[in-house]
Specification:
This protein is 17% helix and 53% strand. It has one helix and three strands, in the order ββαβ. The longest helix has 12 residues. It has one domain. It is of the alpha+beta class and 72 residues long. This is DUF1659 domain-containing protein.
Length: 72
């Protein structure tokens, strides 16, 4: 049976930095690599909120991106 083995985890914060000419939001993101794979969603949320508190822009999204190797 195949297994998924986590090899990488990243935390991505997306900030709303303003509006474009059409009045739609403009976003910029910052990705933090080497996130501990065993980190829980609550832990990442807490860290993301703390990091976002250092920015002058409001946090629009907080994402976790995991990469897996599939082995058989």
């Amino acid at each position: 049976m195949a297994q998924a083995i986590i090899v990488d985890s990243k935390l991505r914060l997306v900030f709303e930095t303003g509006l474009n000419e059409q009045g739609k939001p403009v976003y910029k993101s910052k990705t933090y690599n080497s996130v501990k794979p065993s980190a829980t969603a609550d832990q990442l949320f807490t860290v993301g909120q703390a990091i976002a508190g250092l920015s002058s822009y409001p946090l629009a999204e907080l994402n976790r991106n995991d990469s897996f190797d599939i082995v058989g």
